[in-house]
Structure formats: structure tokens, C-alpha cells
Amino acid sequence: MVYSQQHRSISILMLPWLAHGHISPFLELAKKLTHKRNNLHFYICSTPVNLTSIKPKLSEKYSHCIEFVELHLPHDELPELPPHYHTTNGLPPHLMSTLKKAFDMSSSNFSNVLQTLKPDLLIYDFLQPWAPSLALSHNIPAVEFCTINAATIISIFANHFKNSTLKFPFPGIHLPDYEIRMFKNQVEFSSNGLKDGDRIQQCSSSSCNIILAKTSREIEAKYIDYLSDLVGKKIVPVGPLVQDPLDQKTDEESPIIQWLNKREKSSVVYVSFGSEYFLSKEEIEEIAHGLELSKVSFIWVIRFPKEDKTTKVEEVLPKGFVERMGERGMIVEGWAPQAKILQHPSVGGFVSHCGWSSVLESIKFGVPIIALPMQLDQPVNAKLVEEVGVGVEARRAEGGGLQREAIAEAIGDVVVKKIGEGVRMKALEVRDNMKKIEDEEINDVLEQLEQLVQLCA
Ligand code: UDP
């Protein structure tokens, strides 16, 4: 469909990393941008297993402007990674590096996709430096979309590069030694001969003029400005990009919603550690005791790796826990409609691993956070949550172990006690302020992308 010269049809190919927490924001960005302009056409490229779970999340109304394109990963060369593992969702942790390798090896298939679709623009994620190179070789401009926040990117640049003289200049984000070690291990994590830190750095340096980042100036203004200076490119915040709960097909009769409907306002904590982290038996035990001691009602999502078909949730919980909790707690095995739960008025706190999407979802719905970061960018996100004032991190033991008493105390403080009033108020204030600038931020994204496409046309 061709409109006027200024509003000619623009096709945009998106290539997110193969994780639910990445594909969702790419999809939400596409939805938000198509609301603003009817001349945009998006292709979202991912593996069949990811597309099968993401497709039902897209309502019919977008079918004319958002299409899905399959990316096939090699499987004969990597028999340990069958197609149902072409996603981080439920992936056994020891296969993460194989998944990154397989993703790299799909580059020639991706080149065919570029060749066939000939998009006006590629929007790519932060782990695949081959994607912008291929796009440029097809004369297609490429822009990075970082689904991590600016503070994390700065931390990666400061911690990863041995020759870097850059010191992380923000005292508000101070990681204890065990978290620095954990963070360094992650960015030094190597797959297919390339460290994650290098992937991230190469991806940002390949981005044309600007870098999109899933964040908001309401939360991260000083980090966004600092990072823009550091990389010499404008960091353009896209806002929280939370999936519209109306798009989540949970029927109102579902046991979770019914259970929540019976609870008092802001009385329940939602407990979840995202799509990639699997709690150890010891961690499950500590959290269970923490919840029990807190006396607060809860919904707790517990998941096991896909290959684990035998573990029963009752076996990993402390003896008699389910019986003792009775109606006070609901354990959900596998997957819960998170956005729908967080926006329910009965929810008054989120015990979270602080995956960045979870943090933004919690802020979007004004739910204060009890932070229990586990890996990756989560420790930085948790410090940011405290700095912004929308949550509290539960204290850990010296070496980093979870402590039931500290978990119970943090839950009590944030959800129930007078001491948490400031955090609860702040969560509402930041929610309102972020909402006020959301539209402005998306307009700026659109303007920047249109300028780039026009420039390269
Ligand atoms: N999520 C969900 N239900 C679950 C677990 C996760 O809907 O049971 C969604 C959650 O709402 C978020 C994403 O999966 O959008 C997880 O992303 P995040 O960055 O928080 O964590 P990750 O999974 O990357 O560790």
C-alpha cells in the first residue's frame, strides 16, 4: 500500500533474541508504532517454537500490519538442541551457549529472509552482531533495540572491558562483591567464541545513529544521557512496552482471578522469577519459609526446566507447606498471566527476580517490588528499583544466600507495615509520571525511525 511520498509504506523487520522477555517488547513496540501510523508494516522473525507461543498474543486487529516470519536454526549439526529448545523458555541452563551458537549459525537463513522481504529497516537485539552486518550488506539500515536498561549497559561497558578506564560513575548502583562476580561471569560468558560483553558492544556500535532502549526517562534520565554521551549515539527510550492485559486471554472465571477476587485490596504478593531462572530446592525452601513467616497471602509461580518431567512441586516445597498455607497461598505451576495479575487490585507487592520486563510491568501497574535478583542484569535492576524508590531488596547472607527472615521482613515492610508507605506511594507516583510521558516517548521513536528511513531511502 503506498500513500504519499512522506507517508509511503515502510516495512520493518524485527529480530529479537530468542527469549520471551525480548520477543514480547519487540511485539509491543510494533503494536504501539502501528497505532500511530497506518503505513507501517512489521515482520517479527523468530523460531517456530517461539512464534507458536507468541502468535496467540496478537489479536486479529493487527493481522494486516504485523506478520510473523520463521527463522530456522540448524538442527542436524546440533542434535542436542532439538527445535523445541529453540527458545530460552524452559531451556535447560547448560544448553544456553548452544542456543546462542545455533542462533549465530542461522545467519545465512536470516540473510535469505532479508533478501526476500527487502525491508526498509531492521530492528535487532543486543546479542547478534551478525544481523546488522548482514542488513548493511543488503543496504538496509539497522537499529539496535536494547531490552535491557541504560544502567545495565553502562555497567557492562565499565565491568567487561579490561582496558576500559571507565568507572561506573553512579553510586546509587553499588553491587556487593558476589554480585560483581556474578555480573562479570555473565558478560564474560562465551558462546561460539564470542563473549556476551563483546556481542553487546558490537551490537551497539553497529546501530545507525540511534539506539532504542526499553526504558523511560522517568526512571533512568541520568543513565540515558550518560550512555548517549558514552556511545556517541542518541539513546531513545521507548517506554515500558507492557503487554496490554486485555490482550492476555485469561478468562475471568480462571481460578487465579477468582482467587484474587476474594482477597482484600493490595493484600497479596505475586511471586515470580521470570521465564529463564529455575529456583534450586534450597531457594524454594527459603522463599516458602519467608512467605509463611510474612503471614501475607501469595500467588507463587514455580517452574522447572522442560526436560524435568518428574519433579512434583509438592516434593520441593517444605513438608506440610501446602496444607499449612491452605487458602492463603496459591501455587501456580509453569506459567501465569503476569500482567493480568499485577493489574489486579488485590495485588500489593511483587516478589521479583527483577527481570527488566517484570520491573517495568510492576511499575506500570503501581505495584511495589520486593527484589530478589538472581542473575544477569537483575542485580543492577534491583538497585535501580531501590534508587527510584519503588521497591526494597531483601537482605542476603554474607555469601549471597537467601534468608527466610529477610524475605518475610521485606514483604511485611513493603505490603503491610507503615514503614512501607513511602515505597507504596512512590510506586503510584512513578506509575502516573511514566504514563504521562509514554506517548511522547513513542512519538519520538517514530520520528527518529522515519528520519532514518528517509535518510537511507
Ligand atoms: N511472564 C509471564 N508469566 C510467567 C513468567 C513470566 O507472563 O509465569 C512474562 C513476564 O510478564 C515478562 C516476561 O515473561 O513479560 C519475563 O521477562 P523478564 O525480563 O521479567 O524476565 P526473564 O524471563 O527475561 O528472566
Automatic annotation (TrEMBL):
Keyword set, alphabetical order: Glycosyltransferase, Transferase
Transferase among the record's keywords? yes
So which domain of life are we looking at? Eukaryota
UniProt key word Glycosyltransferase: yes
Give me any GO biological process, just one: carbohydrate derivative biosynthetic process
The protein's GO terms of the molecular function aspect are: UDP-glycosyltransferase activity
Q: What is its EC number?
A: 2.4.1.-
| Residue span(s) of domain Glycosyltransferase N-terminal | 9-242
Query: Which InterPro entries would you find in this protein's record?
Result: Glyco_transf_N (IPR058980), UDP_glucos_trans (IPR002213), UDP_glycos_trans_CS (IPR035595)
**PANTHER family of this UniProt entry?**
GLYCOSYLTRANSFERASE
Q: Which family does it belong to?
A: Belongs to the UDP-glycosyltransferase family.
Protein's name according to its UniProt entry: Glycosyltransferase
- What is the organism field in this record? Malus domestica (Apple)
